[in-house]
């Protein structure tokens, strides 16, 4: 599919106000009595990386599955590049790359064959297939492994191939579901480079993750999801400034005193988090001297997205 054909759906019809690349409106998904996605509203404008961050069970994977039409919403509206899902999911699928959380590569095929099969599935025109495969191999740094069987690849290579497979038809929108889950830090860094490159190429990325550092490093915007809804959204810097301030002060406290200190700090209007037996006070730059004197000596550090996550979801970080 050529890029001019790909751009057609809205660039001509709504030149001034293009629809969001991904749009979910009042989306609900229930499993029996459990409401996994609870009136979700989420727009992803074109050309950004949006990190969907949330604790286990927040509804991230369910949201991803509805976007790929693997699962059907009970109510609400979903669209990808202006195409309603599931009604036009075939069209949407040709414009969208999907990288699943679980590796489902074909073990019997080589790296190159795994990619070529998907150029057929995505209906890439015959004359463009070889070039698309070549490009995807380059992107994933797998050119020298193109004839290797998938079973012979390392975990990091497999994950790069999985991403390359989702990109082989040069989609404008990419869904990454927990792209680096279970990978060691070095491989994770490699993939972060690959994902940043997508943004540089103008691809819209929706990435679910529960790695806060991953969301903070890669995302233009983060949507914090809990209990099936987006509870806050903004650039990492905006979220940090709004919910954690500039500085956090950490106090080493004995376990028997931590609850009473927390009460004292909360009574003064400050948020806290616990890390083991340490008590961290958010927005520490505003702590009045009277409270500071009572808390004693602490260690200051710059606030981060993890502080926001803990403050807003009440979750502990793994
Ligand atoms: N097929 C299903 N049948 C029943 N319940 C489900 C099903 N899929 C998901 N759920 C439930 O829906 C809720 C949301 O799950 P989901 O997997 O979307 O969360 P998540 O944010 O992706 O979390 P995780 O990071 O653990 O995957 C959870 O309570 C989960 O147990």
From TrEMBL:
GO terms for cellular component: plasma membrane. The keyword Nucleotide-binding applies. GO terms for biological process: response to antibiotic. One of its GO terms (molecular function) is ATP hydrolysis activity. Transmembrane segments: none annotated. It is a peripheral membrane protein. Residues 22-252 form the ABC transporter domain. Belongs to the ABC transporter superfamily. This is Nod factor export ATP-binding protein I. It comes from Nocardiopsis ansamitocini.
């Amino acid at each position: 599919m050529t890029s001019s054909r790909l751009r057609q759906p809205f660039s001509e019809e709504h030149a001034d106000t293009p629809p969001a690349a991904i749009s979910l409106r009042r989306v609900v998904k229930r499993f029996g009595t459990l409401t996994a996605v609870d009136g979700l509203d989420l727009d992803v404008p074109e050309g950004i990386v949006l990190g969907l961050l949330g604790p286990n069970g927040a509804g991230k994977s369910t949201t991803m599955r509805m976007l790929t039409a693997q699962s059907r919403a009970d109510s609400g509206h979903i669209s990808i590049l202006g195409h309603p899902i599931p009604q036009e999911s075939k069209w949407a699928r040709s414009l969208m790359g999907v990288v699943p959380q679980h590796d489902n590569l074909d073990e019997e095929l080589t790296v190159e064959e795994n990619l070529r099969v998907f150029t057929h599935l995505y209906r890439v025109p015959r004359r463009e297939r070889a070039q698309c495969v070549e490009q995807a191999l380059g992107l994933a740094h797998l050119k020298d492994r193109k004839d290797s069987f998938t079973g012979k690849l390392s975990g990091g290579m497999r994950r790069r191939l999985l991403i390359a497979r989702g990109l082989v038809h040069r989609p404008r929108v990419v869904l990454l579901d927990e792209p680096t889950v279970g990978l060691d830090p070095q491989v994770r860094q490699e993939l972060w480079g690959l994902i940043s490159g997508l943004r540089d190429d103008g691809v819209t990325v929706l990435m679910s993750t529960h790695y806060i550092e991953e969301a903070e490093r890669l995302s233009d915007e983060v949507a914090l999801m809990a209990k099936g809804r987006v509870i806050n959204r903004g650039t990492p810097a905006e979220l940090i400034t709004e919910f954690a301030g500039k500085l956090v002060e950490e106090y080493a406290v004995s376990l028997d005193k931590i609850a009473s200190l927390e009460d004292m700090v909360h009574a003064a209007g400050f948020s806290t988090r616990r890390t083991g037996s340490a008590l961290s006070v958010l927005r520490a730059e505003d702590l009045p001297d009277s409270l500071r004197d009572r808390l004693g000596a602490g260690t200051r550090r710059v606030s981060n997205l993890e502080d926001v996550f803990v403050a807003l979801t009440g979750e502990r970080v793994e």
